[in-house]
Write a structure and sequence with these properties.
By secondary structure, this protein is mostly helical. It contains 5 helices and 2 strands, in the order ααββααα.
Length: 135
């Protein structure tokens, strides 16, 4: 292979690698912005929400992206929950409604499969922050 062709191929590979790296940085920045907006909207911490989701065992009933072992199928998948128009099919989708649902699902929909678990106000806001940060 001629030397000039080798240089051209190396230059092309380098350009591809730079483009992929830039895309990864942009993806990380977008996820970071999404997480920040989710935390501001809900008044919670996505990191603490992840911990609460694990502690309350939410993944035993729900499929939750980013949570190891959260592949339950009793309740709905929580992937894309931030883009839904209602919470639990009953409430307008707002951070306050999400928090109310997480805390007191039986008061909102008696007999539903979502159990009362004694989730505190802050834990519910943290869980909402995590869920709203899912993309």
């Amino acid at each position: 292979m001629p030397s000039s062709l080798r240089w051209l191929m190396l230059l092309l590979i380098a350009a591809i690698l730079v483009t992929l790296a830039a895309g990864g940085i942009m993806y990380a920045e977008t996820r970071s912005r999404t997480r920040i907006m989710a935390e501001q909207a809900s008044g919670g911490s996505a990191r603490a929400g992840r911990t609460a989701i694990l502690a309350y065992g939410c993944g035993s009933c729900h499929d939750i992206p980013g949570i190891d072992g959260a592949n339950g199928s009793v309740g709905p998948s929580l992937a894309g929950i931030a883009t839904r128009t209602t919470v639990a099919g009953r409430l307008p989708h707002t951070p306050d409604a999400m928090t109310r649902w997480i805390r007191h699902p039986q008061a909102i929909s008696p007999g539903s499969g979502m159990p009362e678990q004694g989730v505190s106000e802050q834990e519910a806001r943290d869980i909402a922050a995590y869920l709203y940060g899912l993309t």
